[in-house]
Amino acid sequence: MLGQSERKGSRVIVCHCHRVSDRKVARAVADGCASLRDLRRECGAGGGCGACIPVLRTLLPDTGAPSVPSLRETPHEAA
Ligand code: FES
Fold it and tell me: Class for domain 4-62, per CATH?
């Protein structure tokens, strides 16, 4: 049984300081953002405490960051 968030299409807030979701970051990347600076300028993500920066790096293309499971994968799916 799907929860309400799955029915509507779930999203994860990746930057709590600026309430930026993974979808908004993905949209910004699709629109050409290729760096943390671009993301900060486009949607504010990463412009506060900085705690989200490791996650933002994984969502950017070709950052050289180590691969981590998708935010949408459960630990079982990522194994
Ligand atoms: S959580 Fe993104 S800057 Fe604080």
Answer: mainly alpha
From the list 25, 58, 52, the residue with the least C-alpha distance to 41 is 25
Contact 5, 23 (CB under 8 A): no
Residue 61, pLDDT score: 85
Q: What is the pTM of this model?
A: 0.69
Paired with 15 in beta bridges are 20
Ligand 1 atom nearest to 53, measured from its CA: 2
Candidate from 39, 42, 49 with most ligand 1 atoms within 8 A of CB, to mutate: 49
Q: What are the boundaries of each domain within the chain? A: 4-62
